[in-house]
Amino acid sequence: MLPAWRSNLLRKQCKRYSASSERLNIIGSLPGRSASQLSRLCDHQPSRGTLMATRPSGGCRCGRVRYECTADSIAMSFCYCRDCQMSSGSAFGSFVLIPPGTMRLRSGQPKRYAVKTDSGRTLTREFCAECGSPLFAWTENIFAVTAASLDEPAGLQPSIAIWLDSAQPWAPIPDDIERFSKNPSISSTG
Hints:
Layout: H1 4-16, H2 20-27, H3 35-41, E1 57-59, E2 66-69, E3 75-79, H4 82-88, E4 93-98, E5 103-107, E6 111-116, E7 122-127, E8 134-138, E9 143-146, E10 160-162, E11 178-179
Parallel strand pairs: 3-10, 10-11
Antiparallel strand pairs: 1-2, 2-5, 3-4, 4-9, 6-7, 7-8, 8-9
Helix pairs in contact: 2-3
């Protein structure tokens, strides 16, 4: 059984591909799931906590780096890991998750640095070299855009909170979203 947030992600991906042959080619390629298993998810409506279909665009504070996404956003995540705390200068990082490979730079070139995370993965963060605005964070499995860098962040609705084991005791944590002590499983086997 897939975690609810992962099922919502797959449902959202299915919704984007209305032609059944195209849909099955795309979702059928996900490891560990047959096309018939995944296509059943397409018959359900997304549950509470997913984003409205949007193709986010945004940039840094000084305007040097601009980006746009070529696919709808998947979810909004609050991450309470120490790395996100240090990177954001706050109690957590706020991110909009998009399918990997769907972000396109319109102008500028962000600077990047990579760190080993508590989960053992390599996390790459990108930011504007001029004004320092954090823009992106990604691993081999997920691509995240910082919520504050979006042109239109007002309509966002958080859906998951992750790395709560690292949350500061004074950190605000919404009650109405899915919570995970560390990373949720992002594999297709749950």
